[in-house]
Amino acid sequence: MPSKNLDKNNLQLIRHNTSLVKKLYPNINRARIQALKELTKQFSFSFASGDVIQP
């Protein structure tokens, strides 16, 4: 059961990161969004928390 919960939390984080980045960078390309999704999935990075720094 905990793995389902982790998956749900990870999915929510991916959605939150993607939404925030698209608002901040409306012209971001799909490849970068996909890379963000993969990094979030693998490392649970949070854009809002500052885990990913803006250039």
Structure description:
This protein is mostly helical. It has one domain. The protein has helices at residues 2-24, 30-43. The protein is globular. The N and C termini lie far apart (39 Å).
Task: Write a brief caption for the model.
With 55 residues, the chain is mainly α.
List keywords for this structure.
55 residues; mainly alpha; 2 helices; 0% strand
What string gives the helices and strands in order?
HH
* Major β-sheet annotation: none
Morphology call: globular
- The number of domains: 1
Head-to-tail CA distance between termini: 39 Å
The chain-level mean pLDDT equals 88
Instruction: Indicate the structural class.
Output: mainly alpha
The helix content, as a percent range, equals 55-70%
Residue runs with pLDDT of under 50 for 5 or more positions: none
Number of E strands: 0
How many helix segments?
2
* SS strand fraction: under 5%
Q: Determine Rg (CA atoms, Å).
A: 11 Å
Task: Set down the secondary structure blueprint.
Elements: H1 2-24, H2 30-43
Helix pairs in contact: 1-2
